[in-house]
Design brief:
Radius of gyration: 14 Å
Region (Disordered): 32-51
Protein name: DUF3775 domain-containing protein
Largest sheet: none
Number of domains: 1
Structural class: mainly alpha
Helix content: 40-55%
Biased composition (Acidic residues): 34-51
InterPro entries: DUF3775
Organism: Teichococcus globiformis
Length: 137
């Protein structure tokens, strides 16, 4: 499975973030919002691993804030697509608006403050044909 979904013209859409990073954020937002302990917290090779016992909203917020601007905007845009604010075909516009929103700061607080944020991110990935459950972590 490619990390790049097709756009409306049959070309590929660059999400601007790895699927593994999105899946990791989904897992841990769900765990934090549900009050459950995650089984593990693995990040991609470019990120620092966060130990399970250290996982809380503050640690996840720091992880999100360490992502670059494009990755943070991609998370917000995926949540908006998952919520139905935008269609997958509107990815470029959703991403542009998410970058404007992210420029104001507080991407982690914004995402952690969204009800069911993990599910919204998973739905956003689903809109592009990816299943969060199928992504290796």
């Amino acid at each position: 499975m490619s990390d790049t979904p097709d756009d409306e013209d049959g070309g590929e859409v660059d999400l601007g973030i790895s699927l593994e990073t999105v899946a990791t954020v989904v897992d841990h937002i769900r765990a934090i919002q549900d009050g459950d302990e995650p089984d593990e917290f693995d990040t991609d090779d470019e990120s620092e691993e966060i130990e399970e016992e250290d996982l809380d909203a503050e640690t996840l917020a720091a992880f999100i804030e360490e992502l670059n601007e494009d990755e943070q905007a991609a998370l917000v845009a995926l949540a908006w697509i998952g919520r139905g604010d935008h269609e997958p075909e509107e990815w470029a516009e959703a991403l542009r608006l998410a970058k404007e929103r992210s420029a104001a700061g507080g991407t982690a607080d914004y995402l952690l403050g969204l009800d069911m944020a993990g599910d919204l991110l998973a739905e956003g990935l689903g809109a592009f044909g990816f299943s969060v459950e199928d992504i290796e972590r």
